[in-house]
Amino acid sequence: MSSDPNERAELNELGWGADFEAAYQTFCDGLPAGERDGVTPVRIVGVQRQTFQVRGADGEGEARMAGASRHAGEQTPAIGDWCVLEAAPQNSGEPGSGRLLAVLPRRTTFSRAVGAVDEGRRSQVQRQQVIAANVDVVLIVTAPDADFDLERLERYVLAVQASGARPVLVLNKADLHADTDWWVQQLRTLGPELEIQVTLAESGAGLEGVRALLTGGTTLALIGSSGVGKSTLTNALLGRTAAPTGEIRASDQQGRHTTTSRTLYPVPGGGLLIDNPGLRDIAVWDAAGGDFEDLEALAAQCRFRKCTHTTEPGCAVQAAVRKGKISPARLAAFQGEAAPRSRR
Ligand SMILES: Nc1nc2c(ncn2[C@@H]2O[C@H](COP(=O)(O)OP(=O)(O)OP(=O)(O)O)[C@@H](O)[C@H]2O)c(=O)[nH]1
Ligand SMILES: [Zn+2]
């Protein structure tokens, strides 16, 4: 990496820091002298299967993880990761593409356990899948309505702290009640040290405090139950009206269209925001960790004993979803739980 101050400023805006810099230098020192000039640090801003959308001081491009190279990094990059990119040679016919040689050590890690098959032992094993890396601050969003649940919020706080990121509690939809202070006091019981923000995402009011968190390349993410206003808040911060489609279209220098699922966005005015389904699903896993007595009771009333609660006639579960008594996310969690259970 050159010592060009403009490049450094670009990287800092992307969340670069002294810790990444030191790890990057160590990695470069291990490269043969002839290869040091060809590498550059980039951040993963989008992931689509094996293709990564990356952004560095020189702008954006696509990259793949280097195969079983001598650098043989075991780690797969996740959204938010800082990686070492080896740019494709000028004559490769693939401008803007390159190979990722290594994932730099993460500041923070959001991961979840996923079932995987151990080919050697032919058995199910639990593997940690990283869903987002290097998130600095997580907004735990709630609203003064039926969603408000201090026990659940406390679990979110613990999950965020375990990732290494800083939790900030956000009471959105402050317009729903005149007595906002009462709700804020409830949130205070979760910990006197926790920062609390009050927002009205729909009207765009009260966002100054959240914007103030986004200085100096800070990476922000939002979690919280369905309907608390995460999309509205995201759109207000990013200054756009439509919800993200998750797809961006870019064309490379040959004019070919490439589609990558981008989930790390620069926030106008500074900072970055990660909005990916995996993080959102924290709420769903949380529901999955709880019990499903209500859903099981409903399922017992379905017309068919082996009802899958999808399209069957006389499905009591689907009826409850239609009436808004059960959220689709919770049903998904129940189904995710029920499937392996029925095989046991
Ligand atoms: N009254 C009020 N309603 C709001 C506010 N912010 C968002 N809403 C409304 O709350 C509803 C849900 O908002 P979303 O932003 O879709 O919620 P979400 O958390 O992204 O929900 P999921 O996408 O299901 O996870 C929408 O109808 C919003 O218009 C607010 O500050 N006040
Ligand atoms: Zn059913």
Automatic annotation (TrEMBL):
Cofactor(s) the protein requires to work: Zn(2+)
Xref: Gene3D superfamilies: P-loop containing nucleotide triphosphate hydrolases, Probable gtpase engc, domain 3
Signal peptide stretch: none
Binding residues for Zn(2+): C302, C307, H309, C315
Top-tier EC class: hydrolase
Cited InterPro entries: G_CP_dom, P-loop_NTPase, Ribosome_biogen_GTPase_RsgA, RsgA_GTPase_dom
Alphabetical list of NCBIfam families matching this protein: ribosome small subunit-dependent GTPase A (TIGR00157)
HAMAP family: GTPase_RsgA
Protein name per the record: Small ribosomal subunit biogenesis GTPase RsgA
Gene: rsgA
